[in-house]
Amino acid sequence: MEMKPLFHAILQSFNPYAYPHLTEKRFSFAMRYFCVLLFFTLIATFILLIPALFMIPQYAQSRAANFDTLALQLDMHFTTPFVIAADPLIVADTNTSMRDATILLSNDALYYKSFILFGKEQRIPLDKTLDLKNDPSLAQSVGMVFFLLSPALFFWAFVFLSIYYWIMIALTFIIGLLLVWILRFSIRPSRIFKVALYASTIMILIQLLLFPFYRLFYIPLIAYWLLFILVLLTLRDSETPKGASQTITTSKSRDIFADDHNQRGGLSRQSAPRQDSYDVDERGNLKSGPKRKKSFDEENDGYMTLK
Q1: What is the structure's pLDDT at 91?
Q2: Is 200 exposed, middle or buried (0-12, 13-18, 19+ CB in 10 A)?
Q3: Segment 139-167, tens digit of pLDDT
Q4: What is the pLDDT of residue 34?
Q5: Cα–Cα nearest to 198, from 21, 33, 55, 85
Q6: Between 3-12 and 27-48, two packed helices, what is the crossing angle to 10 degrees?
């Protein structure tokens, strides 16, 4: 999918009067539009979360300062490796090597591969007692763990947000069907579904782009439903009933034949062709009205009759 149609469709989704053209596009375009919109919006959200990622060590250190003593006792024994995440591979085990895992948590240390130094192995020693209050390196390691988990977090965020937004679109579609049935609007169900899909753009952008700063739920949803109802009101007369279209077609076909008949016979458009009846005698002469100059036999005199 090209970027130009994508951004053009995003701009059109905010204009209620652009939906008659926007909803004429295929379902495949609408599906690709939703996936690409959510993908790039989620990337922008993660970029906006980068400053918060660097603030995690300071935040953890400040929270740990509220305790006089904050210690964790680690004593792990595994029969099989415990996989915390698959991408990147995060394993808690005492026998797994760093060749198989990106992050390895064992009894003595936390091992991870650095992205900056070409995958060089790094080690954070872990004692039996972790003093989170007096050891600032442990707070910094928390931010590193979140950074290494970002690919997996992005994947699962995309999956769960897709499910959430599709549920909201389906719910809005059902509400739209009820509104169209109550208000007796002539709008196809397929067009109502496309309206619900394209109008969700405002909800996705507001909710995700403001997520690093504000946790909003009702405001994006209200904006989404207001735009959806406004689009339905603009589309209420966009589709003509079948009876009206057939009547127009019939009147046009009559006008065409009337024009053709008028050109041939010289009759006016509003006057119907006059049909007169005449009485004819045995010789072919008219009993009333203009008479023939010659009888039928005189006109055909001299012609050979084939038997």
Answers
A1: 79
A2: buried
A3: 566 666 677 777 878 888 999 999 999 99
A4: 94
A5: 33
A6: 90
Classify residue 144: in a domain, yes or no: no
| Boundaries of domain holding 109 | 71-131
Helix, strand, coil percent values for the chain (each to nearest 5): 55, 10, 35
> How many domains, in total, are found in the chain?
2
Residue with more model confidence, 251 or 233: 233
The pTM assigned to this predicted structure is 0.59
Tell me whether residue 93 is in a domain.
Answer: yes
The two beta strands, 90-92 and 103-105, are parallel
Residues 158 and 31 in one domain: yes
Question: Do 42 and 191 lie in a common domain?
Answer: yes
Tell whether 76 and 125 lie within a shared domain.
yes
Residues 43 and 162 in one domain: yes
- Residue 265 covered by a domain: no
Q: Higher confidence at residue 116 or residue 286?
A: 286
**Is residue 274 a part of any domain in this protein?**
no
Query: Quick one: tokens of 248?
Result: 């127009």
- 88 cis-preceded (ω within 30 degrees of 0): yes
Q: What's the first-to-final CA gap in the chain, in angstroms?
A: 80
Q: How far apart are CA 101 and CA 121, in angstroms?
A: 11
pLDDT > 70: percent of the chain: 56
